[in-house]
Write a structure and sequence with these properties.
It is an enzyme of class 2 (transferase). Its EC number is 2.7.1.33. This is Pantothenate kinase. It catalyses: (R)-pantothenate + ATP = (R)-4'-phosphopantothenate + ADP + H(+). The structure is a single chain. Helix content is about 35%, strand content about 15%. The protein is globular. It contains 9 helices and 9 strands. A hairpin with a 4-residue loop joins β4 and β5. It has one domain: 3-Layer(aba) Sandwich (Rossmann fold). The strands form 2 sheets. Strands 1-9-8-7-2-6-3 form a 7-stranded mixed β-sheet. Strands 4-5 form a two-stranded antiparallel sheet. By secondary structure, it is of the alpha/beta class. It binds adenosine-5'-diphosphate and the ligand CC(C)(COP(=O)(O)O)[C@@H](O)C(=O)NCCC(=O)O. The site of ligand PAZ has 11 residues, from α9.
């Protein structure tokens, strides 16, 4: 009699690798992917791009941001190829040229998104295929203070509802559609409000980088309950800058201390009053802002969008990227 084949031990099932749309890379594995991409920035240039409190040096640029600029250059070329295929298919119907490649950069307040976005802008503009790289921050689409006050949203600044989301999406849609000139309002950290009458103009870039807390938020459903096209639908690539919440809080408070010694001293600064009180009192205010606004926004709105990013950069306590997760499917 033939005995039945032994069934596979249960543990074999348990250890079968789970299907995942991502590839996880250590810093060393990722930095090896730079290939022969040359380093086009000097230490002085990196210094100028660095945000207050951020730690970034040439090693970080070489190990993390050069491989990323190489990957993005490959993506831009491949996306052009796809667009060519679509143009061939559509013929006269919908053929379009000069569509910019759009990159979203998301993450918490004080995680260092601006530095990542500025570095990408500098690195990507060095490639001959796409020299014109524009950077836009979403704070220009925050509702003006007058409007936030009228809607009772002053303590919700940075939450999705504190933005004019339709105007932001329309702005990116117009750029993507190849409109010759597209304008956006301008926000000032100095006056903590939209600057009346000031405009930022974007003229047909090769690449557009859109940086902000909520850029990966799904679109709000329309009044009829139907799904609408959202901002992230216009992205060809997106980066989520990630770190432990405790580390980000420390970076936020340290930056507040530095701003108190610099930008807040300006007589026009909204925060000038925090230069007139003790450091401890000023820090109490910053801690409260973190605890009541920025942290809840991170937990409720920003972090849940992380899984939508093409690439997640995970920073360690010293701002250096330790791990990366790249979407492969
Ligand atoms: N109150 C402020 N006054 C002046 N500059 C500020 C103030 N708050 C933030 N900034 C600067 O604005 C930029 C964006 O900050 P933020 O939105 O927290 O994003 P991130 O730190 O992720 O880049 C940073 O360069 C920061 O240094
Ligand atoms: C202006 C911000 C909402 C960030 O805007 P973003 O460009 O990410 O849209 C944020 O930096 C901010 O000021 N938050 C309000 C709470 C605070 O003062 O920290």
């Amino acid at each position: 009699m033939i005995s039945p084949a032994p069934s596979a031990p249960r543990s074999a099932h348990r250890h079968r690798p789970e299907a995942t749309p991502y590839v996880d890379l250590t810093r060393a594995e990722w930095s090896a992917l730079r290939d022969k991409t040359p380093l086009p920035l000097t230490a002085e240039e990196v210094e100028k791009l660095r945000g207050l409190g951020d730690v970034i040096d040439l090693d970080e640029v070489r190990d993390i941001y050069l491989p990323l600029s190489r990957l993005l250059n490959l993506y831009v070329g491949a996306t052009d190829g796809l667009r060519g295929a679509l143009n061939t298919f559509l013929g006269e119907q919908g053929s379009q040229s000069g569509t910019p490649f759009v990159i979203g950069v998301a993450g918490s307040v004080a995680v260092g998104k601006s530095t990542v976005a500025r570095l990408l802008q500098a690195l990507l503009s060095r490639w001959p295929e796409h020299p014109r790289v524009e950077l836009v921050t979403t704070d220009g689409f925050l509702l003006p203070t007058r409007e936030l006050e009228a809607r009772g949203l002053m303590a919700r600044k940075g939450f999705p509802e504190s933005y004019d989301r339709r105007a932001l999406t329309r702005f990116v849609a117009d750029i993507k559609a190849g409109k010759a000139e597209v304008t956006a309002p301008v926000y000032s950290h100095l006056i903590y409000d939209i600057v009346p009458g000031e405009k930022l103009t974007v003229r047909r870039p090769d690449i557009l980088i859109v940086e902000g807390l909520n850029v990966l938020q799904p679109a709000l459903p329309g009044k009829d309950g139907r799904t609408r096209v959202g901002l992230a639908d216009y992205f060809d690539f997106s980066v989520y800058v990630d770190a432990r919440t405790e580390d980000i809080e420390r970076w936020y408070l340290n930056r507040f201390k530095k701003l108190r010694a610099t930008a807040f001293q300006n007589p026009s600064s909204y925060f000038r009053r925090y230069t007139q009180v003790s450091e401890e009192e000023a820090l109490d205010y910053a801690r409260t802002t973190w605890r009541t606004i920025n942290k809840p926004n991170l937990v409720e709105n920003v972090a849940p969008t992380r899984g939508r990013a093409t690439l997640i950069l995970r920073k360690g306590p010293d701002h250096k990227v330790q791990r990366l997760r790249l979407r492969k499917l």
